Amino acid sequence: MTHRVLALLGIATIGVLHPSSAQNLDRTTPPVLSPPPSLRLPPIEAASLPNGLALYVVEMREVPVVQFSLAVPGGGRQDGARPGLSSFAADLLDEGADTLDAFGIAALAEYYGADLSTYADWDAMVVSLKVPYRNLDSALSLMATVALRPSFRDIDVARQRDLRLARILQQRDRPESVANLAFNALVFPAGHPYHASLTGDSLSTIGLDSTIVREFYAQVFCPNAATLVVTGSVSVAEAMQAAQSHFGTWQRCQASAVAEAAPAQHDLTSPVDLSIDRTHVFLVDKPGAPQSVIRIGWPGISRHSADYIIIEVMNTILGGSFSSRLNSNLRETKGYTYGAWSGFAYRPLPGPFTAGASVRTDVTDSALVEFFREIRTIRDSAVTPTELDRAKAYLALGLAGEFETTSQMAGKVMELLTFGLPRTYYDDYVQRVMAVTAADVQRVAREYLQPDRTVVVVVGDVASIRAPMDALGLGASSIRDLAGQPVAN
Fold first, then answer.
1. Residue 233's CB: how many other CB atoms inside 10 A?
2. Would you give the distance in Å from CA 68 to the centre of its chain?
3. pLDDT in tens, 291-331
4. Domain boundaries in the chain?
């Protein structure tokens, strides 16, 4: 109580001593921001184990927590004829390992105060552990058991297969999920890794069994293709000792298997032609839907593009922030949606550019008009100085927040390794952002935004939205299912 009274007296004293401060504030103009400081990150130290496992360590002593993230190439882009296989195998890693079942693994993780997760993205299968330093050895033993000695029991495979089939069926009732599935299937044609869903479909899932999963795991889980990123309250020497203790007995794979699991190049070539000759409009029917889910886009660009920084500034203005043109127009001015956005997906095999929103059914055509107007406007005229300054500040000042936690740091290190970027990449990131000009923004908008060669996917009540959409003259519309296949009109 005494401390609280003293604090209140201190606040009151400030008000008495400086009564004119609040009165003299000009609240009609925002404060002027100082130039953003350069980001200074702790060094990323590299090492390796005798079995070929690459180790990267970032020491962060602020909190006694350690993160170990093991990434093994073999993500969704390598599923081949069985879409969803990598994510299915990753989901099974913590369903049973050695003598432990799923409950035993979860119970031990809780006892150690650890966060243990397994998943697959488009490029890798990942096992991640976050734990207080004092329980590191015990929790790391659990992580190694999950990563290196999974059971893949028939009963676990069958249970997870049934759960995935149920989730796939549930996606049909979620317009956002349907829009994303159809969009990827239509932007990326058959034969492209991104044509199918990361979690596969019913046909690819129903045939999965323990033999298939074991064979896939044996092919891709190779230490001489894997990366272990360690961040947190641990030194390089400690990380090396812990990694050797728990992953040192992991046996190397044959060179052929490693070559399949880890292609040497970081920019991969599309196996199919991705050119779009004109704008194509595809409708997925959701009778009686009160909203339409809109996706507009085309194949994206390489993360190694020399224009990457400028593109990010351009997209921040277009649809990459809350104050962007798309969101300000469709949400704040028109009231069509709760949020409109755009962005490029960067992967070793470039992902799509996508702009999207969920809008009221009765304004579907009007929303499309505004989307294309904003895309054309940023191509045809220079952005304002205020927009440019705001976008650059958004990226430069927000960068530090992407490295706050051990998990965020691990993710950023993984990103650098995935794309083969130098470990010093972010040292001059702020300076490069602040050097972008309005002319730069207009140049990349003209080069990388293609409103006349676009895939438009709308999930909604076709009976209500088709005629007004066709009247826009974007292109002849056709009705598709969630896999992008034609449906009789």
1. 18
2. 19
3. 999 999 999 999 999 999 999 999 999 999 999 999 999 99
4. 45-261, 280-479
Side-chain-facing half-sphere of 441: CA atoms under 13 Å: 27
Under the phi-then-psi rule, with left for phi > 0, alpha for psi from -120 to 50, and beta for the rest, what region is 479?
Answer: beta
CA–CA separation, 58 vs 37, rounded Å?
21
CB 232 within 8 A of CB 133: yes
Architecture of domain 280-479: 2-Layer Sandwich (3.30)
- First-to-last CA distance in the chain? 74
Average pLDDT across the chain, whole number: 91
Question: Cα separation of 90 and 77, whole Å?
Answer: 14
% of the chain surpassing 90 pLDDT:
82
Can you tell me the distance from the alpha carbon of 267 to that of 255, in angstroms, rounded to the nearest whole number?
Answer: 21
Decide: 298 and 454 in contact? Cβ < 8 Å: yes
Nearest to 312 by CA among 197, 436, 219, 470: 436
Contacts (Cβ under 8 Å, ≥6 apart) of 346: 300, 301, 302, 303, 419
Segment 321-333, tens digit of pLDDT: 999 999 999 999 9
**What would the mean pLDDT of 147-176 be, rounded to a whole number?**
96
| Three-state secondary structure string covering 107-146 | HHHHHCCCEEEEEECCCEEEEEEEEEHHHHHHHHHHHHHH
String of b and e for 360-376 (b: at least 16 CB within 10 Å)?
eeebbbbbbebbbebbe
Q: pLDDT band for position 264 (50/70/90)?
A: very low
Residue 211 to residue 221: CA distance in whole angstroms:
15
Model pLDDT for residues 176-207, shown as the tens digit of each residue: 999 999 999 999 999 899 999 999 999 999 99
% of the chain exceeding 70 in pLDDT: 92
Domains 45-261 and 280-479 share a fold: yes
Q: What's the gap between Cα 165 and its chain centre? A: 24
In the DSSP assignment, the letter for residue 486 is B
Sign of the CA dihedral 165, 166, 168, 172?
Answer: positive
Residue 480 gets which letter from DSSP?
B
CA distance 391 to 305: 20
pLDDT of residue 80: 85
CATH number of 45-261: 3.30.830.10
Query: Which CA distances in Å does 181 have to 286, 339, 480?
Result: 15, 20, 11
Q: How much is the pLDDT for 271? A: 82
Alpha-helix runs per DSSP H in 319-421:
325-327, 364-380, 385-398, 406-418
Radius of gyration of the chain from Cα atoms? 26
pLDDT of the residue at 11: 42
How far, in Å, CA of 76 to CA of 81, rounded? 11
Note whether 361 and 289 are within 8 A (CB): yes
